[in-house]
Write a structure and sequence with these properties.
The chain has 284 residues and is of the alpha/beta class. It has nine helices and 14 strands. It is globular.
Length: 284
């Protein structure tokens, strides 16, 4: 059984990876035009036709007397479809946090699997006392006529517009400091206004990637282009730059679609980069 949560300390911050379900992904979506022998070796797969397990995850961060949620996953629409689906609030509750105790929700981008719990089915905010933060560029795109006119875009809009109407959504430009040691930084390409979240405390630095890389293999091979990237060339540039800088600085990295609990560093090797898991001191 896949893990649905895991918790560790990063300086003054408590960080919990919490899942809204473990589903499956067609490898052709993650690794199009990549020789199967290459991506299979990178992810440890033995069957090129089998779906890859994918976590739909958020991060619960506590520090400085405040509680933050990074992304809100698929929401109630997936409940019962796969292991842990639609159970994000239960996972948060296991750490003693109720929806009304979330102070800030940071949205890396507005794809449907990152905004599903923004509001309830009736349109009321799931986290009634929270401010929701998202890139101005991202918000402008998804709520404009330029946005796709498909079902997923409509879902994203239905999870964003009610927050604007309720006066709970704040937009940010460029790098935005949320609080000391926690900031949002632009990492565009997967979507036009995609951001990642950076935590810095007591000499450690962690980047929560959002969808810059859906799998650690995309950090080792920044040129591999998932079909979900809106601007593939820009996404490759972002991954390359982030991988280079993270490897040089020894920055910790994790992502919402990574298996729980996957936190690692990149090391320079002759072929580019190598992802290495870090052993964490977990606690309940």
């Amino acid at each position: 059984m896949a893990r649905l949560s895991g918790r560790f300390q990063l300086g003054e911050f408590d960080v919990a990876a919490v899942s809204d379900g473990i589903g499956g992904q067609d490898p052709e979506d993650w690794f199009p035009n990549v020789d199967p022998s290459d991506w299979m070796a990178a992810v440890g797969a033995v069957d090129p036709t089998a779906q890859l397990p994918v976590n739909f995850g958020s991060f619960l961060v506590q520090g400085g007397g405040r509680t933050y949620l990074i992304d809100s996953d698929n929401g109630e629409r997936t409940r019962g479809q796969h292991e842990g689906a639609g159970e994000l609030l239960e996972r948060i509750g296991e750490y003693g946090v109720g929806p009304d105790q979330i102070d800030v929700v940071l949205l890396t981008h507005l794809h449907g699997d990152h905004v599903g719990w923004n509001v309830r089915e009736d349109g009321s905010p799931t986290f009634p006392n929270a401010r929701y933060l998202v890139s101005q560029t991202e918000c402008d795109y998804w709520l404009s006529p330029e946005a796709p006119s498909d079902r997923e875009a409509a879902f994203s809009q239905s999870r964003t517009q009610p927050l604007m109407d309720a006066g709970q959504l704040d937009t940010v430009d460029g790098e935005h400091v949320v609080t000391a040691g926690l900031s949002m930084v632009p990492t565009p390409g997967h979507t036009v206004g995609h951001c990642s979240v950076v935590l810095s405390s007591e000499g450690e630095r962690l980047i929560i990637l959002g969808d810059v890389a859906p799998h650690p293999a995309h950090l080792e091979h920044p040129d591999w282009r998932p079909v979900f990237d809106h601007e593939p060339d820009r996404a490759v540039e972002t991954r390359r730059a982030l991988a280079r800088d993270a490897a040089e600085a020894g920055t910790l990295l994790t992502g919402g679609h990574f298996p729980i609990l996957s936190v690692g560093r990149l090391r320079r090797v002759a072929t580019g980069f190598r992802w290495e898991l870090v052993e964490l001191d977990e606690f309940e």
